[in-house]
Amino acid sequence: MSKPLCLVIDDEPDILELLVMTLKPMGITCYTAETLAQAQEYLLEYEFDLCLTDMRLPDGNGIELVTTFGHQTPIIVITAHGNVESAVAAMKAGAFDFIAKPVKLLELRNLVTTALQLPKPENQTKPPQKKEPENILLSKLVGRSEAMQTVRAKIEKLARSQAHIYIKGESGTGKEVVAHLIHALGARAKQAFTPVNCGAIPTELMESEFFGHKKGAHSTAHKDKQGLFQTADGGTLFLDEIADLPLHMQVKLLRAIQEKQVRPLGAAKEIPVDVRILSATHRNLAELVKQGQFRQDLFYRVNVIELYIPPLRERLEDIPDLVTKILTKLKSNEYHQQTTISDKAIKSLQAYSYPGNVRELENMLERAVTLCENNIIKHQDLQLPEATQPNHQEQTGFHSHMEEVERNTIMNALTQTQGNKAKAAKLLSISYSTLRYRIQKHQIKYK
């Protein structure tokens, strides 16, 4: 195998020499440039595996290289110390990552190693074309709608960077699936993908769960334990329902992200960690910042780039494809025969608003498969509300009735589990965070 090829761009000869001296022992062949124009000539002539560029150059800005060549070459931008705005701008333009001056050589070597693991584009000589992606992983996101094509295109682009991404979307839209795809298509694909539901961790155990502990750090610490950051080291940490983190943990999380170090409970020193953060919540983080329930500085850290996942009601044309996939999955998992669905039932599904999104559609079809006869799902098997377009008075009455039914169902589950929320969530077949949200919504107090 030939040596990796790297283009290093800086107008200060001392820094150029330092960067080259750091990369050569890693088996990397380096070309150097001191201007934007010279760098552009090299990038047009050669297929580089990596590019390091200073932000400020005598004849332009390093972000111009990111915009033009970032789709084919991972570009690491070197920014001035503390210049967060420039770093964010570089990441949004498509940079692989950034590193601040003065450059820490160990951090640079780790970053370069990760960048060189990034899969190469299928066609490196042409800019990406607007077409339906053929990547087999992206086929997990079902739907031909324009909304889903946009999501898939963004995932492909975001996978080629190390930016922290905030995935915004309602419950049941598939935020964890999207997070896993960003990881699987990126440079960290061979490392761990570690998902965690922030709302499911008891407050008193959060610090230990995230950062680990040493034996004897507290009464239940019978042996050393790695935290989630250590488990995800070199890979991706997905923080689902990040809005559920209490303020004191938000402060500690911010420090871990900024310093790239964590201190296990009871440890004498901090441990370096290399983790990409993906986060998600069904709540409005920006609104929570205004209300003082979520730290603004943490919001800016995790929300370098926002990825919006549309609700199912905004892409109803994807229903037939989703139904086909779900029914096939049900057949392979639990049922011996393939179930089909009538045209009338499909039209009924396309007239529904799906407050629970794809997850609700899955549950609806699983129930219908059980109820239907002759392996054909008909309209009545779906058990949809009779009126798809009720007047305002009917809608209000129906909504109130359903709210009361939901509240009573949750109360009954809590009674059966003697107030154990985790067991109640399992009994109701919903996530722990969803149950907590419903308890708060209905102001349920269980003693």
TrEMBL record:
Q: Which UniProt keywords apply?
A: ATP-binding, DNA-binding, Nucleotide-binding, Phosphoprotein, Transcription, Transcription regulation
Q: Which GO terms describe its molecular function?
A: ATP binding; sequence-specific DNA binding
What highest taxon heads this organism's lineage?
Bacteria
User: GO annotations under biological process?
Assistant: phosphorelay signal transduction system; regulation of DNA-templated transcription
Domain called Response regulatory: residue spans: 5-116
Protein's name in the database = Chemotaxis protein CheY
Keyword match Disulfide bond? no
Question: Membrane-crossing residues?
Answer: none
User: Which of the residues bear the PTM 4-aspartylphosphate?
Assistant: D54
Q: Which residues form the Sigma-54 factor interaction domain?
A: 141-370
Q: Which Gene3D superfamilies match?
A: 1.10.8.60, 3.40.50.2300, Homeodomain-like, P-loop containing nucleotide triphosphate hydrolases
Keyword 4Fe-4S part of the UniProt annotation:
no
Q: Which Pfam families match?
A: AAA_lid_14, HTH_8, Response_reg, Sigma54_activat
Annotated PANTHER family = RESPONSE REGULATOR PROTEIN PILR, TRANSCRIPTIONAL REGULATORY PROTEIN
